[in-house]
Give the backbone structure.
Amino acid sequence: MRICSLLPSATEIVFALGKGASLVGVTHECDYPVETSTLPKVTRSNILNGISSREIDSAVASALEAEGTLYELNLSLLEQLKPDLILTQRLCDVCAVSYDRVQEAAKNLKSHPQVLNLEPRSLDDILDNLLVVGKAIAAEAEANTLRDNLQQRIEAIRRKTETLRHRPRVFCMEWVNPPYCGGHWMRELVEIAGGCDELAFLHRPSCRIEWSKVLGFAPEVIVLTCCGFSLGRSAQEGEILATFEGVHDLPAAKAGRIYATDGSAYFSRPGPRIVESLEILGHLIHPDLFSAPPLVGAFSPLNLAPQGGA
């Protein structure tokens, strides 16, 4: 089978199931595992590199309104690759090529590939996607084993936190400027990790949130899980956060419990590493219960030096 993945998470799933050699094409954002670096890239972004997070937010809104997608498919390359299966999603137009464009492209390919839509909204959905992909690529046994292993790691954390008397208020920021709350599976992850994120939307998309609501929630822990941003870029967003009115009066700031993470690799990528995301949260929320996971470049504390209001 010749597989083309239009999702970084799907690419990770295929490799995790031992079928990486079947991948013939991936997206420009597929960066894990390292073997993806040698695979043909069939997409590109219409958003300029090097612009600010506020400019990105504005450019995304404009591109979706005008074109309906942020990405372009290399149709001639896709034809050359002759895929039998295309893995994609219709959950979020910000995260991948428009599903309708993928469907239209597939109809015109001589290889007549199957298009498999992955649309996880919850932690269980992410785990179930392993089985869906496993069935499609003849790796059902491997998928069941992987799902069971990940579920066991999840339950190990849940057992440690389910009887906690204090669950710190946690705010996971999907975006800093403008502020966005967490969506889909983020509230679940925080709850399993022993926290409470009442600002997140359960099984629904992330959305813009008024900063006044964050001040009212008074989070004890803030985690920057910026979608598509590396740890370094998230740390830069912390400099912007430091200018927000009242941020230094929040319990999280006073306690030095504001963290940057590699949101691109972990929290916003619904693949096998979502469990590492949970383990990161467990440590950040309850360091007395959970040791730091051995993940290089996954998270770091931020020291928000006062810089005045904005």
User: Anything to note?
Assistant: DSSP finds eleven helices and ten strands in the chain. Residues 140-161 form the longest helix (22 residues). The chain has a mean pLDDT of 92. The longest strand covers residues 85-88.
